[in-house]
Amino acid sequence: MEKEAAKMRKTTTFMIVIALIGVLCSSVFLFTAKHARFPLKNEQGNRSVLKNIPFDSIVSLNDASILVSYDNDTQQHHEIKKSQKDPSRSSLNFTYVRDDDCKPISDWQKAQEQYDASTPLYERKLNQAKLYLSAMYTDKNNNFKDLGFIQTELIYKADEQHILKEQAYYEKGTNGIASSSWIEPENFEGSEEWSQPVYYHGYYYILPPSTISMSGYNYIYRAKERESVKQYAIPTQDQNYYSMDNRLDVEKLTKLRTNRNYLALRISSNHLIVFSQKDNQLYITKYDDKGNQIKEITINNNSYLSALYQNDEYICFIYNNKLQVLNTDSMKVKATENSDILSKDTDGNSVIINEILYKNGKIYVSMYKDADYFINTVIVMDFEKTLYIGTLDLLHVKTNAIEMPAINYPVTFRR
After folding, report:
1. Taking Cα atoms as reference points, which of 58, 116, 160 lies closest to residue 411?
2. Residue 93: Cβ-neighbour burial (10 angstroms; 0-12, 13-18, 19+)
3. Tens digits of per-residue pLDDT, 251-290?
4. Above 50 in pLDDT, residue 344?
5. Going by C-beta distance under 8 Å and a sequence separation of 6 or more, which residues neighbour residue 344?
6. Domain limits, the chain
């Protein structure tokens, strides 16, 4: 008993010491942060081109954050705030479920990639699956809403190029394969990255990111939040059911062509702007708010959409490794001549774009290197040349004596 008591006292003492170290680390961090400066280092050009373009960045710990801001006059401010929660983002993602025509076309076998040796993962191939769409929405204040699922009219058809797998764990003490399984394609070729519900005048406008590998029909949907939740009963692989919530009353606004990959939808001045792709062409289609097509333009090149950001009537996007700006009123696109700076830095390192803003004839870009997450780069450019490059180093707030677990949320421009 005495040994156990002594062991408990040691454990308690150790826990108290760890807690005190944590408090000390936070105190050191807050003291350092309070007296720190976060200068924007001018690498190229004059920062006067940032006038009237305020922006913010955040360094966050578990219990506190530093909000680093630059105002309209490019003056730096910072303040200690409550801990910043991870920002959510709006998204649309497919869920693959069984229908009456869904059949296995192979036997269960062990998956090549295993995660837990004590619970083996098994998989088998299916011929098709029905598609439901999960919708998540986050407003500009980072308020998050789960909008539930939309039952689409799309079917994912498997073939030699498009393999559909059902996966489940083998559980000891049961009849073998667990009843809880999930279905997903081996390689999804869609562009869910830029797909999101758009909220406009009380409605959500939703474009499922369908691909040419899907059959059935796709639509632009307009939806309103329901007063009560509706549930779908979805069959599982052992003929049981699980439920999926729908929090939206949905109407089909317009039917879409089935021979394209649909990438994204945005709204500008009561008009819907749809990005889609077929073969070697990017299509940008403008609809009115009733779903009637007004105009369509094309960009020739076999490439992919790697960025998409909107400010009022302008949409900035990167396609064919070129930064391009779409005026949604005129439906004219203009490409920059110096887009190389957005793919690699001067040392040849890859970079990650966090945000793009077009305003008053200039393009403002926030990006960072993967290896230097706390070093943000701000670039100002026009369509011919780079006007300014600046770096904001948020790493030096961490003391050399104590390594603090911190997260940086890169520069975002105030819209």
Report:
1. 58
2. middle
3. 999 999 989 999 999 999 999 999 999 988 999 999 999 9
4. yes
5. 350, 351
6. 1-78+336-415, 86-259
